[in-house]
Design goal:
The protein is 34% helix and 29% strand. The chain has a domain of 236 residues: FAD/NAD(P)-binding domain, CATH 3.50.50.60. The chain is an alpha+beta fold and 373 residues long. The protein has an eight-stranded mixed beta sheet with strand order 6-5-14-15-16-13-17-20. A six-stranded mixed beta sheet has the order 8-2-1-12-19-18. It has a three-stranded antiparallel beta sheet with strand order 3-7-4. The mean pLDDT is 96.
Length: 373
């Protein structure tokens, strides 16, 4: 295939990773995002081994490791703080990578954008696409600033509320699962050295993940409800009150929960585009194509796998044709669907107060993800 001229819509994990990989193959890549810059608000992110495998492919693993906090075990505690289980986590990225790494989400975004610039990606922020018209040879694009461009390939990595998905006429809007999550980004006490989870108590899940030597993010999962009327200080007080029901490291975490601007509340949502993610020369990736609740911590990992597989099929096929798209669909659809379904099932068992086979489900997904996409 001759060098591509590609547009990537959305500078999140999926979009920036795709832009890097295409540029490294010699493509001319424009990357746009409606946000004014990549210093997005956010808390932490949990990256499983299969995500780390793609980050190594992107050439950023050493920097990610330097800014994150890696660990190989998972702890389970009672609401009172007693440690009841210590599990060796699956190294889904291979034995030469940690099982899990936590880091500050905006730091990951900055690392990826800087890597994209090194690879020759031309990034523009504060703009978006207003029109796409495609024919057999390419896609004509109009941008919000009235400029235009012509591309061989357009990648819609523009998130849950994807404009690209709607424009393509794909009906797969994310739906709430019945759960919502409080998140806080806070100082890391010495008692926090890995992800630990508590099931039950005031919330369905109380968990935390170290994101660096001096930071962590902690979270509480509850029934979905409208918290939009709460002022920042009220959100902080509400999360602190829920956290009062948990002890052990939570007593140390709570002491660092003092900044209202670090509290975030969102509902769990899920969807999968059930069928090919492309229409002609336009394809959806990441949250635009699939989203899963964070119960398996696979959202970013699946987005990164999308990018890796798309780049691979583009380099191994002579044209953007049905055979290329068939391979992409075969490698991504069933795998991403299995991860989404498993993530939703874990939440459904909790909502229904049902004792499901959690170890069996997590073991099956870990086995699936250990094999590269």
């Amino acid at each position: 295939m001759s060098p591509l001229n590609a547009l990537v819509i959305g500078a999140g994990v999926a979009g920036t990773a795709t832009a890097i990989l295409l540029a490294e193959q010699g493509a001319t890549v424009d990357l746009i995002d409606i946000k004014p810059d990549v210093s997005a608000l956010g808390s932490g992110i949990t990256l499983q081994g299969n995500a780390l495998r793609v980050l190594r492919e992107l050439g950023v693993w050493d920097e990610v490791r330097g800014h994150g906090y890696a660990f190989d075990t998972l702890g389970i505690r009672t609401p009172g703080g007693d440690l009841v289980a210590e599990l060796l986590d699956a190294r889904t990225g291979g034995e030469d990578l940690p099982a899990t790494l936590g880091m500050y989400r905006p730091t990951l975004a900055k690392i990826l954008i800087e890597r994209a610039a090194e690879a020759g990606v031309k990034a523009r922020f504060g703009t978006t696409v207003t029109a796409l018209e495609q024919d057999d040879d390419g896609v004509s694009v109009t941008f919000a600033d009235q400029t235009s461009g012509r591309y061989d390939l357009v990648v819609g990595a523009d998130g849950l509320r994807s404009w690209t998905r709607r424009h393509l006429g794909i009906e797969a809007d994310p739906q709430g699962t019945g759960m919502s999550i409080w998140r806080v980004f806070a100082p890391r006490p010495e008692s926090v050295t890995r992800t630990e989870l508590t099931y039950g108590g005031a919330c369905y899940i109380a968990g935390f993940c170290p994101t660096g030597e001096d930071s962590l993010y902690a979270y509480l999962v509850e029934d979905s409800q409208d918290r939009s009327a709460l002022a920042p200080e009220e959100s902080l007080a509400t999360m602190r009150a829920l956290a009062e029901q948990y002890h052990g490291p939570w007593d140390d975490i709570r002491a660092g929960m003092t900044d209202p601007s670090r509290i975030n509340y969102t509902r769990f949502e899920t969807h999968v585009v059930d069928g090919p993610w492309h229409r002609g020369r336009v394809v959806l990736l990441g949250d635009a194509a699939h989203s899963c609740p964070p119960t398996l911590a696979q959202g970013a990992a699946q987005a990164l796998e999308d990018a890796s597989v798309l780049a691979d099929v583009l380099v191994t096929h002579s044209d953007i044709d049905d055979a290329m798209w068939a391979e992409f669909t075969q490698r991504r659809l069933a795998r991403a669907t299995a991860v989404v379904d498993a993530s939703v099932q874990l939440g459904r068992w909790m909502l229904d107060h049902e004792q499901g086979d959690v170890p069996g489900l997590m073991g099956r997904i870990a086995a699936l993800l250990t094999t590269p996409a």
